[in-house]
Amino acid sequence: xxxxxxxxxxxxxxxxxxxxxxxxxxxxxxxxxxxxxxxxxxxxxxxxxxxxxxxxxxxxxxxxxxxxxxxxxxxxxxxxxxxxxxxxxxxxxxxxxxxxxxxxxxxxx
Amino acid sequence: xxxxxxxxxxxxxxxxxxxxxxxxxxxxxxxxxxxxxxxxxxxxxxxxxxxxxxxxxxxxxxxxxxxxxxxxxxxxxxxxxxxxxxxxxxxxxxxxxxxxxxxxxxxxxxxx
Lengths: 109, 112
Fold this sequence. Notes:
heterodimer, A: 109 residues, mainly beta, three-stranded antiparallel β-sheet, 0% helix, B: 112 residues, seven-stranded mixed β-sheet, four-stranded antiparallel β-sheet
């Protein structure tokens, strides 16, 4: 079965500290993985996708097929990074995304 | 360019009442989706429409119906609301890249 697990409901760090939001997935084929973010009073939006292998707002995520993980990392957290982050999986092309439970990131000054 | 719009923003229903949540997009996207967001559950797909005239069930379709009225509009109907349908409902759309979805602001629904 396809599943995305984000083990942390809440992650609290201080400004300037490194941050890693964990995401593990279960899928038998070759998935595409994504991170979506929802800032306070804003809409849910795509942050990055593993295929692009890009850094967005200082965040990167590497797909580790051996560990079935797609953790989101940033070396120095900023207060404006505070938001709800969702990891998502697309197993079959066509837009059907499977979302994780979400992790709320709180960056304290 | 409003993107994805949803109405209403907030609604309170009594058990057994019916209502329709409206969604419209102005990005000329082919695909549209309805999700529900519950604490600790993330977003779960209710129904989706890959193109005008087609709809398919998602992960949690029971208790809901949808209509893809035209390319712009995709409505979600609760025929007989239940307290378990208390949730935040999000509509989304996508274009040539289906996994890049654009979300609406959400509808908060409370069923008493």
